[in-house]
Amino acid sequence: MSRLGAWCLEDFELHKQLYKGKASLLYKATCRVSGLPVALKLYRKLRLSALNWYQVQREIRIHSQLQHENIVQLYAAFEDCDHVYLALQYADGGDLYEELKRHGGHLSEERVARDIIQPCLFALAYLHQKGFLWRDCKPENILLGGPDFGSVKLADFGLSIDSTEERPVTRAGTLDYMAPEVVMCPEKSYPQENKEKALLGYTSSVDAWAIGILGYELIVGHPPFERETRTDTYEQIMYRRPNYPAWISEESRMFISAALTKSARKRPTVADLLDHPWILKHCPRTLVPAADSQSGIASMPSVDAASHIEVEDPAEKACRPPIFNIMVDCNVASGDAGSSETHHPAPEMAAESSPEKGLQSIFQWANSSVQRLSSRLLASATVLQDHVLSAAHSSGDAIEDRPLAQSMAVETTAGRPRSASSEGGSLSTLFYPPLPEDHQIRDATGSAQTPVQSAALLASEKLRKIRAAGMDAESAEACSTPTAIKAHRGSQIDFREGCSAESGAAPRAAMDVLHGYNSPWNSPARRRPHGDSSGSLASTPPPRGPIRFPSHKEGRLSYNRTAAL
Ligand SMILES: Nc1ncnc2c1ncn2[C@@H]1O[C@H](COP(=O)(O)OP(=O)(O)OP(=O)(O)O)[C@@H](O)[C@H]1O
């Protein structure tokens, strides 16, 4: 059976809450139509400012165009009166941050290069080729496909931007992962702010920088420029070089140094980084797509299609879940000629013609954008192609025959309100099923706020500073440009004695002791950054002119999405 109409909440059976953000909730759910497990992301409309609305719309527009082995698939997007829903491919291995925690904050270099960095680079090359910037690289947004760690997937495109449609001019992302040129940009409070400023702007190379940060964090245990205050972190990002522990290999040091080239113009692209000797050393050569093969990048760049089919186990292929392929038409911002709604000119245009009308036009424009988005999203979820058909056939389930009441049969739980009405498009369609005790997700903010943990966090920061001072401050300069990487590629890698796993380096733990290195992950104080919620945009005014650094440390909260949430 195919899903003929638009998707709605009743198509999903909610299980446990996976995450609670400022404006979003994430549930593990099962699609009643196909039986597929999904991650259902709910944005609470009441918490969304005009800017947030714009970003949600952009997230859906961009994510719905992505189909890649290393990117979480967006299956559907729809809305009711109170929520916007994203049905996402469920990653049962959790996120990379949790994986790091499970491994004491370190992963082996080989694993980092082969299982994480290379797949991320493939996904980013694919994104960049389409003109998209991800802008939100961090372990929390990289999901694992299973216990074998075989297939990481990028998630969360809430900050992504289509550079073919708009110029990136905003300080967006997670501070520890921001490139210098991003840090130099101002924040913003409405979609078109600063777009007219020709001197502002950055490119996809901000994602290459973030990959360098990611590599460092996964290998060393913390981001290279993380400091106690935001001011210090900004300064580190802008002017300092990372400190490298002596035990990390020369190649990984060179890779990270190359990605962390301060000048965006001299920084290697993600395609260049795929050719870095560190990647080539740890990843089978056949997995690397030709650098200039556009089709290779656009489809599944991580595997050569032909050889992949040859080695693929047919049984495994049969078990692969079907994809219900839904395209969401949310091309709202560009306007709708046929719409009867009042359209307001973009604020900067109005401001140009009459400065005093500028502010008024911003509000009018924001209002009309919200209205247009809302009405269009409600009407626009369109099913194009549906593999659910086969899934439903095989299960013998007939979705049309299924009474709505039955599909909605969810027990009411004490403390979890559920409305009796199920009229389409109302909050009444939203329900929160009971959670088993052992599945109750504790609020990340609440779970780490005890005084003991706060004190431990401070102690851990001090420890980290002491460690940083003792690290090898030398920064590898070789391979710091695309040209240098290419020159280096294929050449015999000269291992620094004692630095490479292959040269019989001492086990990591022993080296840590030797160098007085005590992973922050050994301390229970390391908190999940999602829990740090003090850094909302609302509390950090956008800088004007020269950068002014705020004096307090905010957590690793993604910027520019939390404004007014
Ligand atoms: N498809 C998925 N499958 C399994 N878990 C997921 C999935 N998507 C997200 N998660 C989990 O939920 C967390 C938050 O997801 P996501 O980053 O999309 O939410 P968010 O509201 O955008 O968060 P933030 O604003 O903090 O970036 C992730 O770190 C991950 O642990």
UniProtKB/TrEMBL annotation:
Entry keywords, A to Z: ATP-binding, Kinase, Nucleotide-binding, Serine/threonine-protein kinase, Transferase
Say which domain of life the source belongs to: Eukaryota
Give the compositionally biased regions (Polar residues): 419-429
- Is the keyword Transmembrane assigned to this protein? no
Q: Provide the Protein kinase domain boundaries.
A: 12-279
| Region feature (Disordered) | 335-355, 410-434, 519-565
**Signal peptide span:** none
Q: Which SUPFAM superfamilies match?
A: Protein kinase-like (PK-like)
Database matches in PANTHER family: SERINE/THREONINE-PROTEIN KINASE IAL-RELATED (PTHR24350)
The identity of this protein, by name, is Protein kinase domain-containing protein
Organism, by scientific name, is Coccomyxa subellipsoidea
